[in-house]
Amino acid sequence: MKAAVLRESPRPEQPAVSLRDAAFGYNGRSRVARLTLDIDAGSAVALIGPNGSGKSTLLQGLIGLAEHTAGSVRVLGSLPAEARGQVATLPQADTRNADLPVTLHQVVAMGLYRKLGPLRPFGRQHRQSIHAALERVGLAPFAGRLFGELSGGQQQRGVLARALVSHPKLLLLDEPFNGLDRENRDTLLTLVRELRQEGRTIIVSTHDLEIAQQACTHALLLSAGHAVDEPGHPASFGPVAEAVTLEAVEHAFQDEAVEIDGHTIVTGTHEHGAPSQLGTPGRLRKAD
């Protein structure tokens, strides 16, 4: 009689991002704090909050460019600086190459420098990766065009191609939809959905609830430098339909007047008869 063989149950996949009472900031001062959450691999998280709430600081902290001032943080199972090679970023309005005599192809190629180094020549496989990234964002016909000659929306898509060319596991997008026309917005929106379906993890900072509702699985609301997790207030992190409520947005934007789906929210109150949950796409912006 054969002895029974005990097999370990398969271990669940580790979170893409794991924070435990984590705080981030600069010069020893925390700008975003009190964050305890796990972001599962393959999730797309909308990071929502007013200006100054720490959205960009959090994204910088996840790649080790903002100080980790308290708590613990793991990105893809490692410390942020150690995971940086598997993380790609799309910063706000990245126009650093707009005035340089570089082509779109050269800008996208920069996304491979971290792995190859800037002086190593590209091989056939690398050139194919660059072309595939440009095709992915719909800009392959513009590969030889000077980057500065492209429209703002095309430049933003080109910078996204630069982020995608290295096949990152985690994408951090900082207000990528600001100032884009509808065509470019729709292209980016479709890309976010496709990338999530491929199993990539995405964290996107945005003021646009349409992005959260149509492309993301979860939302994290930040207010006054910390998560909206005080007693008596809605949970700040969770599935979009549960986390993005009028009450939660009202609390996060307590010092600003905002408009959501035509409803104006002003310092702790919202328009009579407004729904308590946002079930339709809408744009979050300061009210006039």
Poorly predicted runs of 5 or more residues: 1-11, 231-235, 261-277, 279-288
Number of helices: 10
Termini Cα gap: 80 Å
Find the count of extended strands (DSSP E, 2+ residues).
14
Order of helices and strands: EEEHEHEHHHHEHEHEEEHHEEEE
Q: Strand-residue fraction? A: 15-25%
> Structural class of the secondary structure composition?
alpha/beta
Query: Percent range for helical residues?
Result: 25-40%
Q: Sheet bearing the most strands, described? A: 7 strands, mixed
Report the radius of gyration as a whole number of Å: 20 Å
Q: What overall form do the CA principal axes indicate?
A: globular
Mean pLDDT across every amino acid position: 79
Overall description:
It is a single chain. With 288 residues, the protein is α/β, with parallel strands linked by helices. 28% of the residues lie in helices and 25% in strands. It is built from ten helices and 14 strands. It has helices spanning 55-61, 80-83, 104-109, 113-116, 124-136, 152-164, 182-197, 209-215, 240-243, 246-252; strands at residues 17-26, 29-39, 44-48, 67-75, 87-90, 170-174, 201-205, 218-223, 226-227, 237-239, 258-260, 263-266, 269-270, 285-286. The strands form three sheets. Strands 3, 5, 6, 7, 8, 9 and 10 form a seven-stranded mixed sheet that branches. The radius of gyration is 20 Å and the shape is globular. It starts with 16 loop residues before the first strand and ends with a strand. Residues 1-11, 231-235, 261-277 and 279-288 have low confidence and may be disordered.
